[in-house]
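User: Reviewer 2 asked us to show a designed sequence for the structure in our supplementary figure. I'm pasting the C-alpha cells here. Could you produce the per-position amino acids so we can include them in the response letter?
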C-alpha cells in the first residue's frame, strides 16, 4: 500500500502512466526538484516504473482494469481458492513485467524480454489452473514438467519481486532455498535432513504452503480490495478533504502546526494504510507552516514521518500485515481492528505529548500562523463530510456480520454513490476506471512481496526452522518471557531493516511469534507484538522510506531525519511489551482474561498514558522547563515503571509495586519542575 499512482491525462488513459507521489502532493504543491527527489527515493525502494504513452498505455490500463474487475467479481461470487491465488499471482507477474523495467536505463520502453517474461507468466498460470486436482495430488511425486514449471514460477516470482521492491527480498529468498538444499551440511541446531528439487519445488510452487500460501491468499482476497478502496477515496477527493479539514480544525495558533500533522495523519492515514503516502501528502502542506513557527528541518521531517507511521497502525485499514494477522489467527478482521483501537489512540496521544513539548521547547506559543485552508471546518464538513461515511460503513457492515471482503466491497459502493453528491467529487465512468486501474497497480508490489515471502515461509515450514528458532530464542533468554520478548523484538527489528513491513511480519509470524506463545503469551498478543515491531522498519534505515521522503521535502539530512523520527516514535513503541509481559496488558488490546474487569482495562490505559507522557518528556528534554540530565533520567525511569514495569522487575526482582513507584517519581519531578519554573 505504499505506491500511490496518479494518472496524467496527457500521458494516456487512466492509470497507465503515473507519479509515485500521492495526488495531493503531485498536484503542484511540490516544486519540480523536490518532486524528483521524492520520486527517486520511492523508486529506489519500490522499483522504477514505466510511463507509457499511446497504445502501450492503453494496454497497461486494460490489464490493470481486468485485474481489479476479476477481484471484485471474486469478492462477490465464489471462486475456487487455488484458482484465485494462481490468477492473482499471474496478474501480478504480468503487470509487474509490463510496468516495471528490468533496469532503470530501460524505462519507458517495452523490451522483447518483457514480452518473453509475460508469456512465461501466462503459461505458468495456465499450467497451474489447467492441472486442477491432479496437479495438487502429485505434489509428493511430481512429473518432470511439474518441476520445470515450478522452477519457472520461482524464478519469475523472484524477478518480479526484484523489479517492484528491490534486491533484498529475492536475495533473502534465495538464501532460504539454499538452506533447504544444503541444511544437512550445517551444524546443530540449524541442521536438517536436506531436500532435493522433487520435494522442495512442488512444496513451494504447487501446494498451498509456499508461494500460494496464506500471504498470497490475504493479498488476493483482502489487500487488493483495500487498495482499490483507497484509490476510490483518493480519486473522489477524500484525501484532500481529510487534510483540509484537519488544518481548519486545528488552525490559527502556532501550536496548530504540530497538532495538525497529528490529526491529519490520523484522518488521512487511517483510510490509506500507507506511511510514505501520508508523509508526503502532509509534508507538502505542513512543512511551510512548521518552518514558520521554528521547527528545524530534521525535527519537522521526523514528526511528518512519525505521523505517516501511524497510518500503518490506524484503523480501519492499517497496513497490509494487519490482514495477515486475521488470517494467521483465524479471527475476523473486526477483531484485529478492535485490538488496534487503544494502541492507536495511545500512539497518537504520545505524538501529541511530543508536539506540545515541542511548542514549549520552541517557545512559539502565541505566534500567529497563516492556515493554508481558509474554508471553515464546519463549511468543509457540510460540503464534503460524506467522505467519512464509507469509513464508518466498513465498521458497520462488519458489526452487522458481513465478512471483511463484503464489508469493503459494499463500502466501495457507498463511496462511489456518495461521490455524486458534488460535481467535483463525482466518480464518473472515466474517473472510476482510473481508480480501479490505480488500485490494481498499487497491489502489484504487495502481491509480489507476499509471493516471495511465501518461498521463505515454505522453506521454514518444510525444514522445521520455525520450531528450532523458537527453542533457540527461549534457551537464549533462559526461559524468561521478558528476555524472549526483548530477543524477539530485536530479531523482528533486524529483519525489518532489510525487508518491508509486510514481509517482515510474514517471516517473523512463523519464526519469532511461536517463541512467545510457547511461554504462555496469548497468540493474538504475540502477533500484535510482532506486527508493531515490524512497523518500525518504516522508520529504520536502509528501508526508512518515510523519513527519507520527509527529508527530501524539508531539505534535512535523511539520517538526521530518521533519528528524529525514532525520537518521536520511541515512547509509543515501548508499549507493545505490555501486551506480552504483563498478564493484564492484553487489556490494551481490549481482550480480557477471566480475572479482569473493564476497570482493569481503564487502569492499564491510565498507566500507559501517564507513562508515555513521562517518556515524551525524557525524549524531548523538556517539560515545564528544560530538563537537566538527572531530571531527564528520572522521567525516563518513571515512564518505564508506568508503561513497562516488567523491564525493571527482570533486573530488580525485589522492586515492589513498580507502577506506584513510577507515579510517585513522576509526581515528584513535576513538583520540582513547577518550583524551578516559579523560581526562574
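Assistant: Here is a per-position design you can include in the supplement:
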Amino acid at each position: 500500500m505504499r505506491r500511490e499512482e496518479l494518472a496524467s491525462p496527457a500521458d494516456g488513459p487512466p492509470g497507465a502512466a503515473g507519479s509515485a507521489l500521492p495526488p495531493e502532493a503531485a498536484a503542484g504543491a511540490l516544486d519540480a526538484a523536490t518532486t524528483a527527489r521524492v520520486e527517486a527515493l520511492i523508486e529506489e525502494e519500490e522499483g522504477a516504473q514505466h510511463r507509457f504513452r499511446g497504445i502501450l498505455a492503453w494496454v497497461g490500463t486494460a490489464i490493470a482494469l481486468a485485474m481489479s474487475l476479476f477481484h471484485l467479481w471474486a469478492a462477490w461470487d465464489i471462486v475456487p481458492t487455488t484458482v484465485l491465488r494462481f490468477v492473482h499471482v499471474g496478474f501480478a507477474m504480468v503487470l509487474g513485467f509490463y510496468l516495471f523495467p528490468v533496469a532503470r536505463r530501460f524505462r519507458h520502453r517495452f523490451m522483447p524480454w518483457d514480452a518473453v517474461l509475460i508469456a512465461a507468466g501466462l503459461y505458468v498460470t495456465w499450467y497451474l489452473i489447467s492441472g486442477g486436482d491432479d496437479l495438487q495430488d502429485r505434489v509428493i511425486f511430481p512429473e518432470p514438467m511439474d518441476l520445470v514449471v515450478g522452477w519457472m514460477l520461482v524464478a519469475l516470482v523472484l524477478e518480479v519481486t526484484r523489479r517492484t521492491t528491490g534486491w533484498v527480498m529475492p536475495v533473502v529468498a534465495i538464501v532460504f532455498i539454499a538452506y533447504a538444499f544444503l541444511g544437512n551440511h550445517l551444524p546443530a541446531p540449524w541442521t536438517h535432513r536436506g531436500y532435493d528439487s522433487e520435494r522442495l519445488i512442488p512444496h513451494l510452487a504447487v501446494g498451498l504452503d509456499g508461494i500460494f500460501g496464506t500471504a498470497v491468499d490475504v493479498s488476493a482476497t483482502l489487500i487488493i480490495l483495500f487498495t482499490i478502496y483507497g484509490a476510490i477515496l483518493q480519486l473522489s477527493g477524500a484525501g484532500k478533504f481529510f487534510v483540509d479539514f484537519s488544518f481548519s480544525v486545528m488552525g490559527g495558533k502556532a501550536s496548530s502546526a504540530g497538532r495538525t500533522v497529528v490529526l491529519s495523519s490520523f484522518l488521512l492515514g487511517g483510510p490509506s494504510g500507507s506511511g510514505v503516502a501520508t508523509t508526503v501528502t502532509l509534508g507538502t502542506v505542513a512543512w511551510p507552516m512548521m518552518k514558520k513557527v521554528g521547527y528545524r528541518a530534521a525535527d519537522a521531517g521526523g514528526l511528518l514521518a512519525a505521523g505517516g507511521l501511524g497510518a500503518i497502525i490506524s484503523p480501519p485499514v492499517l497496513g497490509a500485515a494487519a490482514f495477515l494477522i486475521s488470517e494467521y489467527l483465524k479471527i475476523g478482521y473486526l477483531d484485529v481492528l478492535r485490538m488496534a483501537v487503544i494502541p492507536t489512540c495511545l500512539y497518537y496521544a504520545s505524538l501529541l505529548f511530543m508536539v506540545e513539548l515541542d511548542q514549549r521547547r520552541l517557545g512559539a506559543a502565541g505566534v500567529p500562523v497563516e492556515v493554508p485552508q481558509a474554508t471553515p471546518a464546519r463549511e468543509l464538513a457540510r460540503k464534503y463530510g460524506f467522505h467519512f461515511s464509507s469509513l464508518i460503513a466498513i465498521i458497520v457492515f462488519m458489526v452487522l456480520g458481513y465478512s471483511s471482503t463484503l464489508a469493503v466491497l459494499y463500502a466501495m459502493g457507498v463511496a462511489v454513490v456518495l461521490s455524486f453528491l458534488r460535481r467535483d467529487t463525482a466518480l464518473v465512468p472515466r474517473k472510476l476506471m482510473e481508480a480501479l486501474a490505480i488500485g490494481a497497480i498499487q497491489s502489484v508490489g504487495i502481491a509480489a512481496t507476499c509471493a516471495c515471502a511465501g518461498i521463505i515461509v515454505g522453506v521454514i515450514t518444510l525444514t522445521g526452522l520455525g520450531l528450532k528458532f523458537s527453542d533457540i530464542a527461549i534457551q537464549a533468554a533462559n526461559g524468561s518471557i521478558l528476555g524472549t520478548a526483548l530477543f524477539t523484538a530485536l530479531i523482528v527489528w533486524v529483519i525489518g531493516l532489510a525487508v518491508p513491513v509486510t514481509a517482515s511480519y510474514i517471516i517473523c509470524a512463523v519464526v519469532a511469534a511461536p517463541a512467545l506463545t510457547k511461554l504462555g503469551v496469548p497468540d493474538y498478543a504475540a502477533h500484535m507484538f510482532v506486527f508493531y515491531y515490524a512497523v518500525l522498519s518504516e522508520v529504520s534505515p536502509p528501508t526508512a522510506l518515510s523519513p527519507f521522503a520527509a527529508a527530501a521535502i524539508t531539505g534535512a539530512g535523511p539520517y538526521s531525519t530518521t533519528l528524529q523520527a525514532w525520537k518521536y516514535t520511541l515512547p509509543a513503541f515501548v508499549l507493545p511489551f505490555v501486551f506480552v509481559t504483563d498478564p493484564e496488558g492484553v487489556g490494551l488490546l481490549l481482550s480480557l482474561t477471566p480475572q479482569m474487569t473493564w476497570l482493569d482495562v481503564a487502569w492499564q490505559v491510565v498507566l500507559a498514558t501517564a507513562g508515555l507522557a513521562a517518556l515524551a518528556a525524557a525524549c524531548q528534554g523538556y517539560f515545564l522547563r528544560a530538563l537537566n540530565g538527572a531530571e531527564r533520567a528520572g522521567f525516563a525511569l518513571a515512564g518505564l515503571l508506568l508503561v513497562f514495569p516488567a523491564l525493571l522487575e527482570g533486573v530488580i526482582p525485589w522492586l515492589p509495586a513498580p507502577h506506584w513507584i513510577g507515579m510517585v517519581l513522576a509526581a515528584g519531578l513535576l513538583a520540582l519542575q513547577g518550583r524551578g519554573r516559579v523560581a526562574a
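For the response letter, you might also mention the following. DSSP finds 31 helices and no strands in the chain. The radius of gyration is 25 Å.
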